[in-house]
Amino acid sequence: MSDQKELEKELAAKEAVKSVKQSQIVGLGTGSTAKYVIIELGKMVKDGLKIQCIPTSTKTAELATSYNIPLIDINTVNHIDVTIDGADEFTKEKMLIKGGGGALLREKIVASLTKEEIIIADASKKVDKLGKFTLPIEVIPFALNYVQHQIVSLQGKGKLRMNNNKPFLTDQQNYIIDSDFGLIDNPRVLAEKLNQIEGLVAHGLFIGLAARVIMGVGDSVQVFN
Ligand SMILES: O=C(CO)[C@H](O)[C@H](O)COP(=O)(O)O
């Protein structure tokens, strides 16, 4: 990973944490960009910020705990004030592909409960059309073959994500099918079609969920509202 990309991620994270206020419930994203948010919030908590956080993965929970960031159970809240998460691709309309790190299901649930979902990214994540990054689709193992056929019937090519010669398992013990639909002309329509498939528990198209995208670019940030 280039130093420039890391700097852009860090700048975006530093800008995003300015939205976190005293006593808020905060969703914590997953991935190498969201990591910078955890580092910043760790410093802010040390300096007296009182927040309660909801992690989107076990990995994020572990990282947050290592920075003494207080965590709470998502089932104890009815809303989340602000969530800061990364993305694999985004457009200027704030449509996203997420799930490269395999946390898409929890990330989508957290985003759905969130009043202000802030996405942070380095400049390489901005695209005119989604779909160069293969779309992660989380599926219950029982439905793997069925969902793979449904992806083909939608003109996609799905590949089961592997880890050490075994299927990659999500935090929910599901599989991921990384799916190539080419450049996606209408993400909303594809999302609706995928939502109809039984056994498919989440796909990485996040549409209408992000309130803002903060992109690090060079030594500054650009915000998409
Ligand atoms: O959706 C995600 C994890 O499920 C991540 O936000 C996405 O993969 C971006 O990760 P990174 O910041 O490491 O590039």
UniProtKB/TrEMBL annotation:
The active site is at 107 (proton acceptor). The keyword NADP does not apply. Substrate binds at residues 30-33, 85-88, 98-101, 125. Keywords: Isomerase. Homodimer. HAMAP family: Rib_5P_isom_A (MF_00170). PANTHER family: RIBOSE-5-PHOSPHATE ISOMERASE. Belongs to the ribose 5-phosphate isomerase family. This is Ribose-5-phosphate isomerase A. It comes from Pinibacter soli. The lineage of its organism: Bacteria, Pseudomonadati, Bacteroidota, Chitinophagia, Chitinophagales. The gene is rpiA.
